[in-house]
Structures are given as structure tokens and as C-alpha cells.
Amino acid sequence: MTPPGPGRNSNFDWNEFNPESYLEHNYAEARKDDIRFVSTIGDFFLGRLGGSDALRGVDVGTGTNLYPALAMLPFCRDITLIERSEANLKWLEREVLDYSRVWDPFWRELAAKERYPEVADPAGALRTKAVVESGSIFTLPRNKWEIGTMFFVAESISADVEEFREGLRCFIGSLVPGAPFAAGFMEQSQGYKVDGRLFPAVSITDEDIRKCLKGLVEDDLQFTFESVGDHPLRHGYTGMILACGRKRRAETGTGV
Ligand SMILES: C[S@@+](CC[C@H](N)C(=O)[O-])C[C@H]1O[C@@H](n2cnc3c(N)ncnc32)[C@H](O)[C@@H]1O
């Protein structure tokens, strides 16, 4: 594990991350780019998983974003939501009991596809399946989960490029060989403020993701890009990147 130091993950007080403020800024109104992402994730999982309905799923660094978990719902018997911040853990424990209307537009997008309508009560299903767990991306167990998501985490929890790579590798490492995954990234992010408090980022592009995942994933890795457009979420980033793929069946590569 990378030792602590300025700009690194352990140098920031994640308990000071304000969940209400982050939710309000990022998800209170469903953005078109996020809706397109959840649609692409749904299509990707449907294409790779067909009729599976009892997988063990994980979302890493969930924060206050439930759309990745919703995209895994029909395929999973349980979905572990892993967070480092006590404030976000408390928010998640409440939210999964009966999630708010904020997530309805995301579910509507998914429910227009196959398999998702099988989940008649998504809020009830999430209540039953979600397991909120305190943990860190850097200490995830290896070869555990059969489907996984990680949104805006590896590049948005540290200013150290080595930690970005390590986080991404740990996420892939936590999946069983062949497991499908979807991961979102802010492109060329300069860091971000939550309720006036600055949190770090590593400025990355799809090339950095590709290089890091080399040898760790199957050849069907696919990227989707959303440019900032007319309604950027904030200053200091050039777009959003979605990477969908499967962990390599024979783990031979080093990744970097
Ligand atoms: C930019 S937010 C992304 C939140 C959410 N996944 C989303 O899509 O909006 C980064 C999240 O990573 C969490 N985090 C920070 N350090 C972490 C670590 N070492 N392991 C796991 N999560 C961490 C933060 O608490 C925060 O919830």
C-alpha cells in the first residue's frame, strides 16, 4: 500500500465529506450524462449476464450514489456497498431502508430494459440485498465479488497517480475472474469541493485507465464518454468516462 503523504487518500478527513451537500449538487436533479451512463451499464450487464439472479455484487466508494447498485439489482442476491467515510456510511444505512425519489429517474431508465421489470419493488429489493460496510478500496478482499461497480472513486480520492492505479487494481482484484464491472471516472479532474471543503483528484484520461487495466481485463473493455457540454457539474474537469468490462479469466498481467 502507498504510504501516507500530502495529497494522498489518508491525508483527507473523509468523515468531513457532507453527504447531503454532495447528493444535492450531484444527483438531486438527474443529469442526462448520468442517465445515459446508467442506461449503458444496464445494457452491458444484460449482455454479459443474461438470466443470472444470485450473484454477489459490490459497489466501492458508494458515497451518496445509488444508481450503480440499482443497475446490479436484478442480477444479485446481495450487494455490498463499501465506504470509508463515517458520514456517508450513516447516510447509506438510512437511505437503503427506503430510498428517496431522487433515484426514480434512474430506475425508470433501467426498467425500460429486459430483466429490470422483474424487480417490482426496487426500493424493497435494495433494502433486502444491500449490505453497507465500512472499508477501503485499498484493502478489499481478493477474488470475492461476481459483479462490481465503482463510480468516481479511484481518481477522486487522492491526488497521487500511484494511488489511482492502486485503487483501480484493487477494485478489479476484488472481483472473481470473468466478473463484469462498470466504473465511472471524472476526466482530467482538478479536485472538487463538497460543502466548501476541497477533496483531491488525479487528472486522468481513458489512456490512463486503459494502461492500468492492461492485462487485468478481457478484450471486450468498452468506453463511453460524456463531454462537459453546456451544463458542467462544476469547474475543473473535461468530461466523464464510463469503462465497462470483465475481469480477465487468467490473471497474468501486472496492469502497469
Ligand atoms: C467523489 S466521491 C464518489 C461517490 C459516489 N460513488 C458517486 O458516484 O458519486 C468519492 C467517494 O469515495 C469515498 N472514499 C474515500 N476514500 C476511500 C477509500 N479509501 N475507500 C473507499 N472509498 C473511499 C468517499 O467517502 C466518497 O464517498
UniProtKB/TrEMBL annotation:
<keyword id="KW-0808">Transferase</keyword>
<dbReference type="InterPro" id="IPR000940">
    <property type="entry name" value="NNMT_TEMT_trans"/>
</dbReference>
<keyword id="KW-0489">Methyltransferase</keyword>
<protein>
    <submittedName>
        <fullName>SCO2525 family SAM-dependent methyltransferase</fullName>
    </submittedName>
</protein>
<dbReference type="Pfam" id="PF01234">
    <property type="entry name" value="NNMT_PNMT_TEMT"/>
</dbReference>
<dbReference type="GO" id="GO:0032259">
    <property type="term" value="P:methylation"/>
</dbReference>
<dbReference type="InterPro" id="IPR029063">
    <property type="entry name" value="SAM-dependent_MTases_sf"/>
</dbReference>
<keyword id="KW-0949">S-adenosyl-L-methionine</keyword>
<dbReference type="GO" id="GO:0008168">
    <property type="term" value="F:methyltransferase activity"/>
</dbReference>
